[in-house]
Write a structure and sequence with these properties.
This protein is an alpha/beta fold. It contains 6 helices and 12 strands. The structure holds glutamine (GLN).
Length: 237
């Protein structure tokens, strides 16, 4: 029987607004289809399993990003090799920023990133905050954003989706998140996958496909997830 390995990056420092829930959603959706998974937590100094199928990283405040930043960037080559090899990655907010080239904080510090995503972030005086939903090729993604870092995309990524004004990557160009290959970054917390089941299945489908399993995923009853998404969409703040 197939078993997927899910890597959880920095669960202590990078887990705000329920981002660890993404891990639970993926495991549960696998279990409901009779597929096992194991979770490897990677903290500062721990080895990063290169045989991972899915890598997850959550949000964290600027201070937490500073704490794990050097460790994260020391994994640069490994992360690039994994991304090039098609490993599925879902990174939220603080980890999304660090997967980019750099994060220039408001107080003038430069936290270098791993450069896996062609994005750069600069701290600002405004805070983009509230429920957000975006249209993507994998349906509507629903989550909660809260960040003052403003992210601009380079040519080697495409936006994950489109947002409304004053939200998303930078509040101006209507982009939200970034994608290259199987690597995804987004500002949507919540956890995003709990209210975006089609996207959760897209990540699983890609990870399984990479392991040679091309069968369609058995449909699940997602009524509750869709109801939760509808409530969040109705409450923009
Ligand atoms: N510190 C970052 C910002 O405010 C990330 C915040 C977060 O992960 N929620 O831009």
């Amino acid at each position: 029987m197939t078993s997927l390995t899910l890597v959880h990056l920095y669960p202590r420092e990078m887990n705000i607004y329920g981002d660890t829930g993404n891990l639970l959603v993926l495991r549960k959706r696998l279990r409901w289809r009779g597929i096992d998974s194991t979770v490897v937590a990677v903290n500062v100094g721990d080895p990063l399993p290169t045989g991972a199928d899915i890598v997850l990283g959550g949000g964290g405040q600027d201070a937490a990003q500073g704490e794990i930043g050097a460790d994260f960037v020391s994994r640069r080559e490994t992360l690039h090799a994994m991304a090039d090899d098609g490993v599925v990655m879902l990174t939220i907010c603080g980890t999304y920023q660090l997967l980019g080239h750099e994060f220039l904080t408001k107080d003038g510090r430069r936290i270098p990133g791993a450069g896996v995503l062609d994005v750069s972030t600069r701290g600002s005086d405004e805070r983009l905050i509230g429920n957000n939903h975006i249209d993507t090729p994998w349906g509507t993604l629903v989550g909660f954003e809260n960040h003052s870092g403003l992210t601009t995309l380079g040519p080697a990524v495409t936006p994950l989706g489109r947002t409304v004004a004053r939200r998303g990557n930078n509040g101006t160009d209507l982009t939200e998140g970034a994608v290259r290959d199987n690597v995804f970054g987004t500002y949507l917390h919540g956890p995003v996958l709990a209210k975006s089941p089609a996207f959760a299945d897209e990540l699983l489908r890609r990870a399984l496909l990479r392991r040679g399993h091309s069968a369609e995923l058995e449909p699940l009853d997602d009524q509750l997830a869709h109801a939760a998404a509808a409530v969040a969409i109705g409450r923009p703040r």
